[in-house]
Description:
The chain is α+β, with helices and mostly antiparallel strands. The protein has a single domain, classed as CATH 3.90.470.10. The protein is built from four helices and three strands; from the N terminus they run αβαααββ. It has a three-stranded antiparallel sheet. A hairpin with a 5-residue loop joins strand 2 and strand 3. The two termini are 15 Å apart.
Amino acid sequence: xxxxxxxxxxxxxxxxxxYIRMSPRKLRLIVDxxxxxxxxxxxxxxxFIRKRAADPVRKTIRAAIANxxxxxxxxxxxxxxxxQVNQGPKLKRFRAAxxxxxxxxxxxMSHIKVVVEMPVDxxxxx
Length: 126
């Protein structure tokens, strides 16, 4: 029981970016490309992806890595535990249509959540 109390907490970094003015579908395309690689590799690859959605994903991953390093984790050994893209609120707008009418449309927003952690076998005990 004493050993369990003396164990260090799980070294993980969490970053959440909310209210991104981009649809979740566009962001998920980028997130699915980097989900299987290490976070450091994802940061190196994302500037070369020619999609506007790559920038907020890269910023969120960098923030999660920085939060994990604050807790004493080695940035080279981190892996993704979770990456989520969820839908945020929608801004409802109207646009002029034919014959003097108005058509409604929605501007979608997204939330990104990134969790990085140290793998179990590389955690330092004591």
